[in-house]
Amino acid sequence: xxxxxxxxxxxxxxxxVIMIMIGAAFAAAxxxxxxxxxxxxxxxxxxxxxxxxxxxxxxxxxxxxxxxxNLPFMYFGYxxxxxxxxWSSILGIVALAIIETLLHYxxxxxxxxxxxxxxxxxxxGTGVGIVIRNGGSMDGTEILSIILTKKLPFSVGEFVxxxxxxxxxLAGFVFGLxxxxxxVLAYYIAFxxxxxxxxxxxxxxxxxxxxxxxxxxxDAILHRLGRGTTKLKGRGGxxxxxxxxxxxxxxxxxxxxxxxxxxxIDPTAFITIMDTHEVxxxxxxxxxx
Length: 289
Known about the structure:
Layout: H1 10-35, H2 44-55, H3 62-80, H4 83-102, H5 113-133, H6 140-148, H7 156-175, H8 177-199, E1 204-210, H9 214-225, E2 230-235, E3 242-251, H10 255-265, E4 270-276
Antiparallel strand pairs: 1-3, 1-4, 2-3
Helix pairs in contact: 1-4, 1-5, 2-3, 2-7, 3-4, 3-6, 5-8, 6-7, 7-8, 9-10
C-alpha cells in the first residue's frame, strides 16, 4: 500500500532558509574579520580556499574558490544524501561567498592572534553548526569522507582528520608555523562549537537500570525526579533468567540525584549511563522537577 509522504511546509522551508543564511553570515564574519587578517585558516574546503586565495590574491576571490571547490562534492552529496541536502548546502555556500565578499569593506578586528583564533573559531563553529542543523553543509570533505569510507577501512572522522592534517601542514609552509598552530586551535574550537550547536546545549543522559526492585525504582524516579521510565524485558546471559530493565532519560544535572535514588532502593543495582545526542517526543521537556 503506497502512502504519500507529507511535503515540508512553506513556513518551515522559509525558516530553514533564513537560518542557513544566518549561519553563513556568522561563518563569513569569522573568516573575513578574524581569520584572514591573522593568517588563520579552518580545515576542509574553507581552509584550502583560504590558502589558494592567499597565494593568488589578485586573481581569484575566496568566495569564488569556496563555491567552485565545493560544487563537485554537492553532486555526490545529492546522490548519497538527497536533494534537500544538496540545495541547502548550495544555499549556505553561495551565501557564505556573497556575504564574505561584502565584508571586504568592513574593518577587521585588530586583536591578538590567539583571541582571533578563539573568537573566530567560536563564530565559525556557530555558523557551520546552524547550517548543519538545518540540513546543509559548507564542507565537501565530509561528503567525500562518507563516500570513500564505504570502500576504505577508515571512519569518517579518521578520514577528515587525515585531510585536515595535510591542510594544516600546508598552512605551516604558506603562513608559517605559528599561524598553523593558531589555525589548529581555531579548528578545534570550531569543531567543539559545531557539536554544541548541532546537538544542543541541553546535554542529556540515558540510563539503563537492572534491579529486582525495578517497580520501586521506576516509581521513585517518576515521583522524586519527575521523569517517566520505560520497562523493558531482558534475560541474563549467565543465568538465563528473565530480568526487568528500567530505561530513563535525564539531564546532566539530574544524574547525581538518579544515582542517589537507585542507591537508596537497591545498592546492588546494575546501572549504565550513556550520552545521548538528541531527545525528541514524549514529555521529556515538560517533566516536572
